[in-house]
Amino acid sequence: MAQISPKLAHAYFTEISAGSVVPLDLDGLLRMVDLRRHNHVVIGDIALRCYKNKSKWTYDERDIRRAAQEFADFHLDADDTVEVQLPAYRDHDEQDPEDWGRADWRRKIASWLFWQARLKHQEGRPYEEWDDRWKRIGVGGLPGELTWDEFLAARSGARLRENAANTRPLELMTFSGGSLFLPRAYAELLDRWERVEEDMVARARTCKGCAAQGPRWGGWRTQSPLGYVTLCPPCSGAVFQRYSGHLRGVLYDSPRVRGTRADDYLCRLCAETRAAAWDHCHDHGFVRGPLCGSCNTLEGKSSPSSFLERQEGAVLHLLQCLGCLECRTLPGRYHVDIAQRHLEATERHRHRGRRCGRRTWVNHVELAHGVHRFELECWWHGETWTKDVTVPETVALVRDFVCSALAAAEPDTVVPARRAVSDTRSPA
After folding, report:
1. In this predicted model, what pLDDT tens digit does every residue of 40-57 receive, in sequence order?
2. Residue 282: inside a domain, yes or no?
3. pLDDT (tens digit, 9 = 90+) per residue, 3-50?
4. Are residues 187 and 246 in the same domain?
5. For the chain, what is the domain count?
6. Which of 189, 205, 322, 330 has its CB 3.0 to 4.6 Å from that of 334, i.e. a possible disulfide?
7. Which residue in 282, 338, 286 sits closest to 315, CA to CA?
8. Of 42, 55, 60, nearest in space to 4 by CA
9. Which H or E element spans position 386?
10. What is the pLDDT of residue 419?
11. Residue after which a domain boundary falls, among 50, 72, 94
């Protein structure tokens, strides 16, 4: 098997499939966004297996060439069309969790239309006049007051051309007499894509240890030297060790850390999947514990608010760094977010002489001359104002936030405020 890089696979596929009647969006070959779900990239109805070799993902060159040639030979009669029946709008809380993320190209297209109808309905209207009219199909056959020309104009930019099965359906879609149409051969291709995706997700959800069915979004998927494998929490617990905190107070660049494999352990945060890396504090240098790829990415690359709100035990995990714990602080990137949380919870404007009881939102923040200037807004009344918080005040808010988290924690979850191991040194 000739293994090739994603970049080379993209180049081969682009060259061989040039001129295909199917509008392809081949960036998926580079991004590989569904690896965690099923170890494949699906172009149309063709699933391309991804292989992990020496910590890098590759493709089989034969698979790439074969798939590209199928698209080069794909026949499509533009005059043989079928009407696209779009599903009705459903709010998130009305959907079955099993439907979240399900391969459904009709629902994808409907979501693009409803989103644009919502934007049109709300644009230029005060908040008090927003309603649910955009959720209903209007007299023109589209949601709300949206027109087809408006929709195409809003979605025509290169960044906004929508994707289904790594193809671009809007380039082949037509609108006539209040109905949407696609070439029959292309619609059948998208139907096959749904079946291929769902079959692979079903197989990838199955625990290799006990055959139990896991969550759709890959919560049981864990990295291995050969790619992702599926293990339920009990099976993972039987295979991987639970982290005991034996590296507390050890610096990340210590020989002790380099000589200890993180993937021998369960993730310290979710405690469900195999760890992939040693998480550490970038401000003080101390190890916090082993994290799986998903939790590590959430802590390091998501917004601070996303990590603090979505990850149970997030604050106590950050305080596994003895430097943060002893100083009653968190890494610097969390400071503005904590000040923002405080302002949104406490700041209110006065409307017609009375203190508004509606929640305040922070739209913007800038730092100048040692002062964080927050721009706040009351969406209900359309009022905006600014609030200055000095750096020392921000530090004090962070300290209060940490002390509250420690006071609410179970005693055995808090690391003693001392360096309990001898393999430490002050970080540079």
Report:
1. 999 999 999 999 887 789
2. yes
3. 999 999 999 999 999 999 999 999 999 999 888 889 999 999 999 999
4. no
5. 3
6. 330
7. 338
8. 60
9. strand 383-390
10. 43
11. 72
Asked if residue 96 belongs to a domain, the reply is yes
| 61-72 vs 6-16: helix crossing angle, rounded to 10 | 30
Q: What are phi and psi of 389, to 5 degrees?
A: -130, 120
Give dist(CA 377, CA 364) in Å, integer.
10
Per the CB < 8 A criterion, the answer to whether 263 and 223 are in contact is yes
Q: Are residues 301 and 266 in the same domain?
A: yes
Boundaries of domain holding 90: 81-204
The answer as to whether 49 is a domain residue is yes
In a domain, 345, yes or no: no
**pLDDT the model gives residue 171:** 92
Q: What is the CA radius of gyration of the chain?
A: 26
**Separation CA 328–CA 370 (nearest Å):** 21
Choose the final residue of a domain: 204, 232, 259.
204
> How many other β-carbons are positioned within 10 Å of the β-carbon of residue 255?
10
For 362, residues 6+ apart whose C-beta sits below 8 A from its C-beta are: 340, 343, 344, 374, 375, 376, 377
User: Could you tell me where the beta strands, DSSP code E, fall in 251-370?
Assistant: 277-280, 287-291, 350-351, 354-355, 361-368
Residue with tokens 């149409």: 181
Q: And the tokens for 276?
A: 């992939």
What is the C-alpha separation between 103 and 157, in angstroms, rounded?
24
Please tell me whether residues 119 and 188 are part of one structural domain.
Answer: yes
141 dihedral zone (left: phi>0; alpha: psi -120 to 50; beta):
left
Residues 160 and 267 in one domain: no
Query: What is the token pair recorded at 176?
Result: 């006539």
**pLDDT tens profile 187-228:** 999 999 999 999 999 999 898 889 988 887 767 887 777 788
Same domain flag for 33 and 123: no
- Considering the domain architecture, whether residues 86 and 172 belong to the same structural domain is answered as yes
Q: Name the least confident of 48-57, 141-150, 419-428.
A: 419-428
The residues, any chain, with a CB within 8 Å of residue 45's CB and separated by 6 or more, are 165, 189, 192, 193, 195, 196
How far is the C-alpha of 109 from the C-alpha of 123, rounded, in Å?
22
133-155: b (≥16 Cβ within 10 Å) or e: ebbebeeebbbbebbbeebeeeb
Note whether 171 and 229 are same-domain residues.
no
- 25 shares a domain with 119: no
Q: Give Cβ neighbours of residue 334 (< 8 Å, ≥ 6 apart).
A: 304, 308, 318, 398
Token pair, residue 322, equals: 């003895």
